[in-house]
Amino acid sequence: MSTPKFMIGDKVFARMRGYPPWPAKVEGVVENTSTKSIKYRVYFYGTKQIAICKQEDVCSYVENKAVLGKPKKSKGFNDSLLEIDSELNESFNHSDTSQVSDHTNNGNVNIEKKVNDNSGSLMCVNIVKYSPVDHKSQDKNKSAEVTTVSKLYKSQQLIDEITLKSLKKEQKLIDINYHIQNSLCLNKADPETCLKQLDELNVLELNSLMIKKHPEIVKTLQKLQDYIGNIGCWNMTNEEVEIFSSKAIMIQQKSKIIYNKIQSLFSIPFGKTFTEVFEEELKKFQSYTMDMAPEDFYCLFKDPTDYTVEEK
After folding, report:
1. First to last CA, the chain
2. Is the N or C terminus of the chain more exposed, i.e. has fewer CB atoms within 10 Å?
3. What does residue 169 show for φ and ψ, rounded to 5 degrees?
4. Which of 63, 68, 72, 66 has the alpha carbon at shortest distance from 10?
């Protein structure tokens, strides 16, 4: 049996006979045990129709928009682009920029305070858990449950100020990643903000553990190296297109420089790519940390995959 490439809610282009690849959303996965094939039940934007499509007739919307998402004369196609882009932008904009994503991707963390007493250093962390939002519901308000957890460190461990500085760096890293993504929405882009955030990222002192704890920054930089914007759908003059294109090139160049700096944090054996090495190390790291309590994960300042037998 083939493995499904898409999950419920994923935005895709789906192809039906007689129509160009059309913006759609996966509503369900249909597995045929007799033919060992996978099909998807998809909802087509614009037409509001539902159909069953083979896996080979479905591809990622975001990754293929530059080629398949150009405005067409087909009735309803351009409206479908606006509708799917609007929904994608909502998913970007409902996040709270003042908070930091946790390692389970189910909530946010905010460093609240550090209290010193005679027994050691107490680091308090607020964990904000959000209930999932139903995309069919008109109510977009999220309920949240705030839990304060704390981690006590003995003073002889000498990690008070270092710990706080490291947590602030990680919070800064995630804030930068959020602002970069939010500045380059499909229906509107702010390249100046993106460039400013890349400059801040370039001077931020990073290490391999921080990247493993927050690997989303690697994916963001990979995408930025090919960034060209959504000029085909924007109402821009030739002069505006020229200015934007020059800034898009700067985004590509700066993201490449930072991406190379991150690569240098890892040892890459001859014959392997950074992507291969990073995916292997990330998988190993996640196997060590998947059962950690949030407070232990956030206050982790030594890579558990680097522990020697003696240390264990």
Report:
1. 41
2. C
3. -65, -45
4. 63
